[in-house]
Design a protein that fits this description.
Blueprint: E1 3-7, H1 12-17, H2 19-25, E2 29-34, E3 47-50, H3 51-54, H4 63-70, E4 74-77, H5 84-89, E5 95-97, H6 110-117, E6 138-141, H7 153-162, E7 167-169, H8 186-193, E8 198-202, H9 205-212, E9 217-221, H10 226-229, E10 236-240, H11 245-264
Parallel strand pairs: 1-2, 1-4, 2-3, 4-5, 6-7, 6-8, 8-9, 9-10
Helix pairs in contact: 2-6, 7-11
Length: 265
């Protein structure tokens, strides 16, 4: 039995689009090291540890860290690929390094980019083991990891007024929005999102999270390329940055109808 370690740094969205690749790599004995915020997204794949707790991010790796690494038969790492000093320190260990992000101009969707890296068939969609149980409300998350990707809040507010179902707003701990639902733990957020009938948001990790929970998603894309970074799934629609709110709301209503028809079959 191969004892495998997977090292996956990165933001929420980066982790979710790599889920199919990580699942392909998993053995009966797999451990995953990742940022603490992302561990709830990976716990169904194997044992997890925070990157900080392992000492892997130290400039000079301590002997206990090297001894821990030596206990694995195979180490697949998206950490350290561009750090020659790190690679030199672990050169005697069974590391396989992969580039953490698709390069500019990549012809592949990010999900397929990671699948291709690990030699897996392309075309899978990220999915978390959470049942989608729609409870008749929409969630709008008007933020992202970068201000340049945020559609104006006033436009989201107009979409909310046009939707034909109650709207709950969602925000992160540091995002300013009155009366928004906030969760410290991504697992708790995922379970709440899975009860939404619809999600509307920007190109963000939370849009990817909603899609991975099976929620119908309308994601507004501006400066980033949806051919590479859009949430993947049959229940996902992409809205363009220059669309008026009425068109985004109409797209959301059409998606709701299509999703309801799919569930009724």
């Amino acid at each position: 039995m191969t004892r495998r370690l997977i090292v996956r740094p990165g933001a929420i969205g980066d982790t979710i689009v790599s889920l199919p690749a990580l699942e392909h790599l998993c053995t009966e004995s797999t451990e995953l090291w990742a940022p603490s915020v992302n561990l709830p997204l990976l716990s169904h794949l194997g044992a997890t540890r925070t990157l900080v707790s392992t000492g892997l991010d130290a400039l000079h790796l301590a002997q206990p860290t090297l001894d821990c690494l030596a206990a694995f038969d195979d180490i697949v790492s998206w950490y350290g690929a561009n750090r020659e000093d790190f690679r030199a320190q672990v050169g005697h260990l069974p590391f396989r390094f992969f580039t953490a992000l698709p390069p500019t101009g990549s012809p592949l969707h990010a999900v397929d980019y990671y699948l291709d890296q690990v030699g897996a068939p392309l075309g899978a969609s990220p999915r978390l083991p959470i049942e989608h149980r729609p409870a008749g409300f929409a969630v709008i998350h008007p933020f992202s990891g970068g201000k340049s990707k945020n559609w104006p809040l006033a436009r989201f507010q107009e979409v909310a007024r046009l939707l034909q179902l109650p709207v709950h707003w969602c925000a992160g701990p540091e995002e300013s929005l009155d009366e928004a639902f906030r969760f410290q733990d991504l697992g708790d957020l995922a379970r709440w999102l899975s009860t939404a009938s619809l999600f509307v948001g920007n190109d963000s990790g939370i849009a990817h999270l909603a899609a991975a929970c099976g929620v119908p998603v309308v994601a507004v894309f501006g400066p980033t390329d949806p051919a590479v970074w859009a949430p993947r799934g049959r229940h996902v629609r992409i809205a363009a940055w220059d669309w008026p709110p009425a068109r985004v709301a109409a797209e959301a209503s059409d998606l709701l109808t299509a999703s309801a028809e799919t569930r009724s079959r």
